[in-house]
Write a structure and sequence with these properties.
about 20% strand; globular
Amino acid sequence: MTEEPSGDILAHGPVHKLTVEFELNRFRGELLPELDRLKELGIIRIIDLLAVRKDRTGAFMVMMASDLRPDEAVDFGTAVGKLIGLGIGGREGAEVGAKLGAEMLADGHVFEADEAPAIADRMRPDTTYVIALLEHTWAIPLRAKIDRAGGSVIEDEWIGIPDLISIGYSAEQGGSLEGAEEPIEEESAG
C-alpha cells in the first residue's frame, strides 16, 4: 500500500521538464521576456534551467538559471526526495530521500554545469539546447481544492501537436479515437 504524501509536498505545483533545440542559434530576444511575463502572472516558476550553446567550431558556453532562493531549492529537493524515497521504501525511504534531495539541491540547481560537455557532444554545430524544469504554480490552488474535496488525479497527460497528428493518422488507418465509442466513419458525398 502506498502512503499519501503530506501537505508540504502538495504545496508545490506539477513540474514539467521541457527540452528544446534551437537551430542556427537564432534568437530574437523574445524568450526571456515571455518567461518573465509567465512568472509575473504566477503561471510558472523556473525550478532550474540549463542552456548549452554550441558554435560552428564546436566551442560551447553554458548558462544556468533558477527562480529558487537557496532555502527554496533545499525545500524543493527535500519534497522531491521524500516522494522518491516514499516510493522506494515507505516512511523510512521518505526520510532518507528527503535528506538526499536536500543535499542534491544545496547548490540551488538540479542540473549540473559539468553535464554540459556531454550535452555539447550530442549537439550539432550552431545549435542551442535548453533544458528547463518549470513548476506550474497556477495548479497549486487547484490541486489543494481537489485534495480538500477528497479527489485523486487519475491521469495527468500533456497532449501536443504530434499526439493529435498521430490520433488523426490512426483514425485514417481505420482505427478509432481513444475514448470514442465507435470508429470515425467518412461521410459519403452527395
